[in-house]
Design a protein that fits this description.
By secondary structure, the protein is α/β, with parallel strands linked by helices. It has 8 helices and 17 strands. The chain has an 8-stranded parallel beta barrel. Strands 11, 12, 13, 14, 15, 16 and 17 form a 7-stranded mixed beta sheet that branches. A two-stranded antiparallel sheet has the order 7-8. Helix 3 runs parallel beside helix 8, helix 5 packs parallel to helix 6 and helix 7 crosses helix 8. The N terminus is likely disordered.
Length: 454
């Protein structure tokens, strides 16, 4: 992780965009691929950092650590996956090689790998074991292979190192099953110019459906874009379409942050950095709740397991996410035509009349309900169209605004002071085409506090 984005050299030849010069030149006309839609529905993933840094109390390795330092005593990736599942995450990206160049699979390209560590007598394969565990627990699996390598001598020769990197990439893409995501991090570079087009082309030889995570500046190559910070927040109205030099692409956002504030690798006596459930919930609302993806960083310890405190925190976070109860049930649906947006099933959707730019979804509760959050999901298969919406409650005389925003996208979660009302509506004030809504829900998180009763 740890990006030095300004250190990334983007002085490479820009690809000819003949394949990207699609007819859609309006934001609302750009559509996601089926793989991007499926990825956005995953919503919450984790990225796992484990390696020599774990044993040396470091965040940044310089490539000089001896392979012998990598010696977990109780390596158990299934323990990781149980904790990840308990948190509610759906996919795992594993750091197969960080910037120190140490490879966590038995690569044939260098001796700087687990083949020369004491772990399992040099016969082990960390990447393979993690991949197997992820698939066993029904989690999608992806890989992070750092372009920056502070150990490999070939790094000083761009052409030679590109060949080295491609050979490692071919090993990783051919051994561990389908990869849901491939990370192209932008840390370091030290004057090296990467052949990104070749990297991505070779990735897709064995993994044609893998989505590439990359900084927005790598417009040609990425399918997913970095949020712009490592705090796990989307501090802006989130549109899925990115404009780069006059060309438009669907580039949904992924927001990454570590479970321990500021630490991607494990460190001893680091309990004070562990995020609280309230902090994690707030991060979730500012990532998934703003139409993006949450990527939470986890770090096994020197034993090769997640610390007990981390496991408990992940479980408690998952419980907090699961306990929210949608207060809109079938009996509350005012108009059967709108039922598909109010049925609790994101695989169905309601569509406003063809060609419309404004629409209303209304709910009448059987009895007054108290809520302090709303959730809206837009059906994105044909693009992102909603540009202004409000969530409103009836106060007995008029509609009062609870939330007012622009982008909905994959999912929008809004919070507001708790209100008790018997009528609710989603007012879509402006959309470039007919609005399509997968879900409209409300729920209550606060356990106490001042209520507005309508």
């Amino acid at each position: 992780m740890h990006r030095l984005r300004l250190g990334f050299h983007f002085g490479l030849a820009i690809l000819v965009f003949s394949l990207l010069k699609v007819s859609a030149q309006n934001f609302s006309e750009v559509q996601p691929s089926p793989a991007q839609l499926a990825w956005q529905d995953l919503e919450f993933g984790v990225i796992i950092h484990f390696g020599p840094n774990t044993f040396l109390d470091r965040e940044w390795g310089d490539g000089t650590a001896r392979p012998e330092v990598f010696a977990p005593t109780a390596f158990d990736p299934e323990q990781w996956m149980r904790a990840i599942k308990a948190a509610g995450a759906k996919y795992v990206v594993f750091v197969a090689k960080h910037h120190d160049g140490f490879c966590l699979w038995p690569t044939r390209q260098t001796d700087y790998s687990v083949r020369n560590s004491p772990w399992e007598g040099g016969q082990g394969d960390v990447v393979g074991r993690v991949s197997e565990a992820a698939h066993k627990f029904g989690l999608k699996f992806g890989i992070y292979l750092s372009p920056w390598d502070r150990h490999e001598p070939k790094y000083q020769d761009s052409s030679a190192y590109d060949n080295y990197y491609i050979a490692q990439l071919q090993e990783l893409t051919s051994r561990y099953g389908d990869l849901v995501e491939f990370w192209l991090d932008g840390a370091g570079s030290e004057g090296h110019v990467y052949n990104f087009s070749r990297m991505v082309e070779n990735l897709h030889i064995n993994q044609p459906n893998t989505l590439v995570f990359a900084d927005a500046a790598l417009f040609d190559f990425g399918d997913i874009r970095w949020v712009g910070n490592e705090e796990g927040t989307i501090p802006y109205e989130n549109w899925n379409v990115l404009d780069r030099h006059g060309y438009l692409r669907w580039r949904p956002v992924e927001a990454d942050t570590p479970l321990h504030k500021g630490h991607w690798f494990w460190h001893a006596h680091d309990q004070s950095a562990l995020r609280s459930v309230d902090e994690l919930t707030a991060i979730y609302h500012q990532t998934v709740g703003r139409g993006g993806q949450l990527m939470l960083g986890l770090a096994p310890d020197t034993r090769g397991v997640l610390p007990e405190e981390d496991v408990k925190r992940l479980k408690d976070f998952g419980v907090a996410l699961a306990r929210r109860e949608n207060l809109i049930v079938k009996e509350h649906v005012r108009n059967p035509v709108t039922e598909a947006a109010l049925d609790g099933d994101p695989d169905t959707f309601w569509s406003a009349p063809p060609g419309s730019h404004h629409a209303l979804l209304e709910v009448d509760f059987r009895k007054p309900e108290t809520f302090d959050h709303s959730l809206v999901m837009e059906w994105l298969n044909l693009g992102q169209h909603i540009e202004h919406y409000r969530v409103e409650a009836w106060d007995g005389q008029k509609w009062t605004t609870l939330a007012d925003g622009q982008a909905i996208g994959h999912k929008r979660i809004d919070s507001f002071p708790a209100v008790t009302s018997s009528r609710l509506r989603l007012d879509i004030l402006d959309s470039t085409g007919e609005a399509r809504i997968r879900e409209f829900q409300v729920f209550r998180l606060a356990s106490a506090g001042q209520l507005r009763r309508y």
